[in-house]
Amino acid sequence: MDLKVFGLHKCSTCQKALAWLDESKIAYTFVDVKDAPLDPVRVANWSAAVGGWEKLINRAGYTWRGLALADTDNLNEARAVDLAVRNPSLIRRPLIEHGDGSASAGFSEKVRAKFKP
Questions:
Q1: pTM higher than 0.70
Q2: Alpha helices of 1-117 — where are they, by DSSP H?
Q3: pLDDT truncated to tens, each residue of the chain (117 aa)?
């Protein structure tokens, strides 16, 4: 399985996910979204894969709360993708690109179940 895990090195959820992947001996490539600029097409694909921008964007975090109302009011898919590209820490973490082209956001039991044989 060819996995790419996108997140932040200092994110505790990302750290737990990476530790779980390591313990489970699942190979992956980690990309820190603060270090690597995000491609708008890729972010749009992620949004579609996870079920829309509402599931892609973390609206409970500090980054979201720190944004101007003009940025967050009346969001649509295109504006949300642009906002995520400009503020990558808005993306629910970790964002995992699976080898089959699908993607998942977060690291719930439902996501971990995708890795079980």
A1: yes
A2: 12-23, 40-50, 53-56, 62-65, 69-72, 77-86, 109-113
A3: 589 999 999 999 999 999 999 999 999 999 999 999 999 999 999 999 999 999 999 999 899 999 999 999 999 999 999 999 999 999 999 999 988 889 999 999 988 888 876
CA–CA gap between residue 95 and residue 57 (Å, rounded): 11
Q: Taking the domains of the chain in order of start, what are their residue ranges?
A: 3-113
Superfamily the domain 3-113 falls into: Glutaredoxin (3.40.30.10)
CA distance 6 to 94: 6
Query: In this structure, are residues 3 and 101 in contact, taking their beta carbons and an 8 Å threshold?
Result: no
